[in-house]
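sanity check this fold:
=====
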Amino acid sequence: MERTALRRRLSWQVATVTDVRRETATARTLVLDVPEWPGHLAGQHLDVRLTAPDGYRASRSYSIASAWAGDTIELTVEQVPDGEVSTYLVDVVKVGDQFEVRGPVGGWFVWKPEQEEPVQLIGGGSGVAPLMSMLRAHAAADSTAPVRLLYSVRRPTSVIYVGDLKELAAADHVDVRLVYTREAPAGEPRIGRIDADVIERFAFTPAESPTTYVCGPTPFVETVADLLVAVGHDPARVRTERFG
């Protein structure tokens, strides 16, 4: 059975788009039906491959945003300027369309329901996607492990999963805090990046021994990871996923 699951992860499978949801002006979520999907852990990603009529192929990796739910998975894609795959997935693909996927991939940047320690999630932009998978898996498992999310976005209209985050923030054991870098909503005086002050005020302390997951563009991830280590967090408990 393990060999069969491994073959499925390494083989391209046809995914059918069953729903699309606009998240922001430049991002949307695709709900995919993948028969015999082998299952995934919160935080894993998959490869997407598109094939043009002339045979040209392009593939990209995207984090899975959903908790495990049968044969259906969700991808949230942020459009990259001049990105041939992201532009197609955000602006062109529609319900009923098909393309190939392969996965799931990754075993380090994952959260499992049996983890009982505090969970610190720190995301920048579309780096919130795998963190949302963790939040959804946490909710689905009725986990009592305390979770905090620091989410860095440019402005209120850039927030991905705004409705979901409000709902999750109302649950016990979950704290959600948005950090605006360009424009803040009324009543939010702070505009700036996640810095040492934000880490000290809103993140779990080293003494609480959290497992921390940081995802976003490479400069963001490197900066946040350095800040965490500088205040005393164990580097071995800081897990990172970067893109760009």
In short: Residues 2-105 form a domain with the Elongation Factor Tu (Ef-tu); domain 3 fold (CATH 2.40.30.10). DSSP finds six helices and eleven strands in the chain.
